[in-house]
Amino acid sequence: MLKARLLSLALVAGCGTVENMSQTLNMQVEGQSLRMDGVINTRALRQFVDVLDSNPALREVVLGQIDGSLDAEVVAEMGYTLRERGLATRMLPSSEVFSGGVDLFLAGVQRTVPAGAVVGVHEWETGFGSARDYPRGSKQHEPTRGYIEDMLGSDAFYWFTVEAASFNEVHVMTRGELIKYGVVTR
Predict the structure, then answer these.
(1) Could you tell me which of 129, 127, 155 has the C-alpha nearest to residue 142?
(2) Could you tell me the CATH number of the domain that includes residue 60?
(3) Domain count, the chain
(4) C-beta of residue 104 within 8 angstroms of C-beta of residue 78
(5) pLDDT tens digit string along 138-166?
(6) β-strand partners of 34
(7) Which residue segment(s) compose the domain that 110 sits in?
(8) What DSSP letter does each residue of 40-62 carry, written as one string?
């Protein structure tokens, strides 16, 4: 299953504009929880805000199978929205969350990752290069580095993701790493 997700993640990363506009997150409200599965794309922000506005009793976002994102800016906007609304984020023992999905997860005011959940990270890449191509302090790091610092109070996790795995690979975080970098709050 994990190997299939990693292949899917690689395919998501290579998708173009047409796929970005057509794919969408599956969002399902269950009581005070919003369950999300799929790929975060340009349409996800509007969809997310609409669901939150229509369901003011929501208290948490549950990430199930998130294969990553096609738009880092949308991930950040969704994350800031999630944080501003005071929502928690949670994974299930069967959850597999990768890349930009992990960045979204960081926005929870409380963050829970149970045993069995997979949290996969790697460096980012654009058509102009990957994170490792740029020295620390380079403006190319700022959008994601700054977002992570806003969410966790430190950018240590950002630098960990840059070094943990190249863009074409995925590092599955250990429980110790989740705690060390503040990815989980409980």
Answers:
(1) 155
(2) 3.90.226.10
(3) 1
(4) yes
(5) 999 999 999 999 999 999 999 999 999 99
(6) 29, 61
(7) 24-181
(8) E-TTHHHHHHHHHHH-TT--EEE
